Each structure stands twice: as C-alpha cells, then as structure tokens.
Amino acid sequence: MDKTMTGNGPDEPGFRPWAEYREYPPTEMLRRAVALREDLQRRRSIRMFDDRPVPREIVEECIRTAASAPSGAHMQPWKFVAVAEPATRRRIRVAAEEEERHFYEHRASPEWLRALARLGTDADKPFLEIAPWLIAIFEERWGTAPGGERMKHYYPTESVGIATGFLIAALHNAGLATLTHTPSPMKFLNEILGRPRNERPFLLLVVGYPSAAATVPVLERKTLDEISVFL
Ligand code: IYR
Q: Is 121 in the pocket of ligand 1 (CB under 6 A)?
C-alpha cells in the first residue's frame, strides 16, 4: 500500500484527487518558467497614475486570484477592501499624507531617508486620489467561528503576504500598474473603512493605468547568484 495515501486517499471523506494538476514535459516547463519570469520582470512600482477608470470586474477577478494563495491551516486570514469612491480615496489620501509628513520630517532616520532618496518619494501622495482603485489589504489576526467564538489564525502575516504577491502578479498580468504603499501607522484605514478590531492593515495597494508621463527609477535587481544558493 502507498503509505503517502494513509488517511487521505481518494476514498477518504473530505478528500478528492487533484484533477486540476497539469504536468508539462521539462522543455515546456522551462518555456513557461521563462515566459513568466520575463513577464513579471516587466513589473515596476509606479507612482504616477492616470485617472482612467478600471472596470470593477477586473479587480474582482484579481482578488479571486489573490484568495487562491495558500494560508496557515487554510484560515484565509485576509480581507481585501477595494475602494473606488472618490470621497473615500480622498479621506485616505488626507490621512496618509498626514502620517507621511510626520515620517519624512521626524520619524525616518537619516539612513532610511538616504535609502529612499533614489526612489524620489516624498510626503505628497496625489496618486491615492488619482488612481481609480485602492485596495486596502487587511490581515485577520483572528477569525470568528460560526458560533461566534474566536478562531485562532496561524501564520496570518505570512499568509497575507503570499496572497498580496498573488494579487500584484494578477494585476500586472491584467495590464495594470500597482504601488505597494505602507503609510505607517495605518490604523486610520480601520476607521475610514469601518473595519473591525481583528483586522490589521497590512498594505495599501494603488491600482490603475500608469500616467503617460510615468517614469521609474533606474534600479538594478540582484542577480540569481546574489540571491540564491543551490546545494
Ligand atoms: N511610506 C513612505 C516611505 C517609504 C518607505 C519605504 I520602506 C518605501 O519603499 C517607499 C517609501 C512613502 O510612501 O513615501
């Protein structure tokens, strides 16, 4: 008997064969790996957005993709709040810029400011109002069971980080530009978006078309040799 099947074979209740799996021959695997690398390497963080609208159903599909990410004990400890309402985006901009002004003027160390200099960032965040969508991503620090009692979440931060990676890749694949924005602290997002106490703001994703005048800083990515070790 195949020991790996003990307790979770296809006849076991709660389990089924993984019928969606696709195996590719190694040459096709490599072709696909190269194609995805080339496509994702074109992604850049964009800070100059166009105000052209993006249909809601595209954002919905990308959020569905994000939610296919693995999560600790499959608790899916995430909430995606997609904001198109101009008044709400304005409130987010005002609150974020207040935090950012404090950051740039007081909180950031000289070392941190030096690290940011080549990105050309400052406390002004007009893109929070210009881009058609803001997706506020929240980490659920605990869940609620059907009976109302607290349910423990496992590795929620790692899980939400993985889902956010899926989301960024999905939006890029759809032809949209994104910016991962982390005004700190982000508690104001709970207030403005009416999110409960168990939801911790994880990241604010700015989504839309890049403006025709958008530029990106000239940056190098680390090489494979620098970032990996094969043993
Ligand atoms: N949150 C600030 C500062 C900032 C911090 C990091 I780390 C960045 O990679 C970029 C910016 C801002 O958004 O300007």
A: yes
